[in-house]
């Protein structure tokens, strides 16, 4: 209280009031301490001692822990997403009335990607395990830790799956590491083609033919199934479950380990571009789902080592990062551009369609003649029943299904093997001889023949022919400058099913404007236009029905 004659009020209070305050403070602090004790805050966090090396099934325990961790992370992300969506919807409701009134804002909102997509993108981008740097460093760790590097090649385009930078790094690296080729997914390629590619590849390094199992289950499910199978006396040999080439590969590696007389297990690093089947290979050899594998590209983000047998240990690696300098078709198949949202899936499909024969695509997908990628996708979407509200074909979903077919486990396509194969510049006859030393190549050849006899191959007529773009450049160190891809040349367009074979058809651009084959008169841009960017006057859609042409008096209008 301010007393008369004094500038400020005095801070003096009565003793009873002071004691009362002090008591309240004491009580409050006590309560805080009690709560903290309940929650366990302030206690020293016990250090996780991990799984001791001597523990039996250490590997399994660690793997299960990793899977649990990733599941928890996924759930967290989902919850976060749901919360974000909830908040966004609340905000949306609040603003809807005012925004609906403004047509400009309405249009802008339509063009924006949905909140869910944005959040997903943000979560993905913020995950450090998705960065190029991380993927490169993981790959380098695998190369350094391995005695043998197995480059996994998709049998549908073996040359396109080769990475010269990686091969060179292995050859020039320390420790006399051996390089092997493994031709995976041979069940998706005609037999003659596989044989030719095996001959070609074996001129450089030993090559193993392989077909991985594509339906590996978790250990528990698998055990149940095995019990059921033995009870009923049936063995599951369906197309997806069967794996061919495993005995030949294990024999080759086992023989090498014995011949070298090494102590400890032989470390075999599996490398290759995304989705070539590295994880599926390990799962097939292990006979269980030891690594995450699936149609989605870039599932493996960290290296993971798995004991396959007493003397062989395999290391799974994330896919090689494709350099931006690669041709567009190579990027569509081998890079994670679409997943990283650097390129649209529609663009990737358009690029792929340009690389193959239109008739074959029509036959494979059972669609009628199409003029361009968008039309193809709408036919494809209708065929598969990918429809949106009002029966509009969902071309986006059709495009991602199409791309998954090309990189995943379904579509049969092949690239022709070179007639006169030659060694790449970083390989010499001496290096090849050195690399082929120590392997039992005769046994390998017999093993491959056995594999080729067992696999059911598609016939030549039902397989699409793809124009290979040659080896794909990879990035091994994130420090190297990565230049963007050059514009496609006219040669790139040859054999395309969108332009030439369409025979004078129109190409509809993404915006829906038709581009005819007739020579078009191009007006040169003025300097100002060039600076600003092409600004062609856009035709305005005038709805004449709204124009009042009738002479009759409109009673709704106030003509004051
Ligand atoms: N038909 C067929 N499909 C296969 C074969 N091997 C793998 N696949 C399929 O190819 C897809 C990719 O396999 P993954 O094992 O995940 O490939 P990855 O190389 O580990 O992929 P990232 O984790 O992206 O590096 C999956 O859908 C597999 O089912 C095979 O031999 N034949």
How do you describe this structure in short?
The chain is an alpha/beta fold and 560 residues long. It has helices at 15-39, 58-101, 103-111, 115-126, 132-145, 164-172, 191-202, 219-232, 246-260, 278-286, 328-334, 345-354, 358-365, 373-384, 395-407, 429-436, 441-454, 490-493, 527-532; strands at residues 148-154, 178-184, 207-209, 266-271, 304-309, 312-316, 321-322, 413-414, 464-465, 474-475, 507-508, 514-515. Bound molecules: guanosine-5'-triphosphate (GTP).
Q: Could you describe the 3D structure shown?
A:
The chain has helices spanning 15-39, 58-101, 103-111, 115-126, 132-145, 164-172, 191-202, 219-232, 246-260, 278-286, 328-334, 345-354, 358-365, 373-384, 395-407, 429-436, 441-454, 490-493, 527-532; strands at residues 148-154, 178-184, 207-209, 266-271, 304-309, 312-316, 321-322, 413-414, 464-465, 474-475, 507-508, 514-515. Mean pLDDT is 77; it is low at 227-237 and 485-555. The longest helix is centred in the first third of the chain and has 44 residues, at 58-101. Among the domains are: 59-126; 131-324 and 418-458, P-loop containing nucleotide triphosphate hydrolases (Rossmann fold, 3-Layer(aba) Sandwich), CATH 3.40.50. The strands form four sheets. The protein has a six-stranded mixed beta sheet with strand order 3-2-1-4-6-5, sandwiched between helices. Strands 7-10 form a two-stranded antiparallel ribbon. A two-stranded parallel ribbon has the order 8-9. Helix 2 runs antiparallel to helix 4 and helix 9 (246-260) packs antiparallel against helix 17. The chain is an alpha/beta fold. Helix content is 44%, strand content 8%. Guanosine-5'-triphosphate (GTP) is lined by residues 184-185, 187-188, 211-212, 214, 272, 274-280, 293-295, 297-300, 318-319, 408-409. The site of guanosine-5'-triphosphate has 26 residues, from helix 10. Residues 1-46 have a biased composition (Basic residues). Residues 56-113, 497-509 have a biased composition (Basic and acidic residues). This is Guanine nucleotide-binding protein-like 3.
